Known about the structure:
The protein has helices at residues 15-18, 154-158, and strands at 2-3, 29-30, 34-36, 40-42, 52-53, 137-138, 149-150. It is low in regular secondary structure. A hairpin with a 3-residue loop joins strand 3 and strand 4.
Amino acid sequence: xxxxxxxxxxxxxxxxxxxxxxxxxxxxxxxxxxxxxxxxxxxxxxxxxxxxxxxxxxxxxxxxxxxxxxxxxxxxxxxxxxxxxxxxxxxxxxxxxxxxxxxxxxxxxxxxxxxxxxxxxxxxxxxxxxxxxxxxxxxxxxxxxxxxxxxxxxxxxxxxxxx
Length: 163
């Protein structure tokens, strides 16, 4: 997705992951921002000032049927301090020992964080068991030495500690 004729992507990543699937596993869920039953729905405002462009690219060798619907609300003028929608996606096959895994890279400028979706495949060395240990650190406004928020670990962040 591109906003206002920008050359740099605002949103990029696999289609299913954008709607909350991970690891190729389809799961039903619903929140105020997402709904996934037999289709993929997102209810997040994605404002722009002059233009928005969405590109869907089939990178598989199969021919796919693709049906879509985009609803929009035309407004006379966006506020000067309007926030654009951005989404960050990446895949790392292995983490590195003693190196923090960065969930979201540093973001500059005004923003509102609405969430994270993480999929994890356990290392075969641990016989399909993943403990999810390792604290979550959230640095806000340059607080590099001591994070603003710290949690017990991804086992609580992702919810796998309670399975």
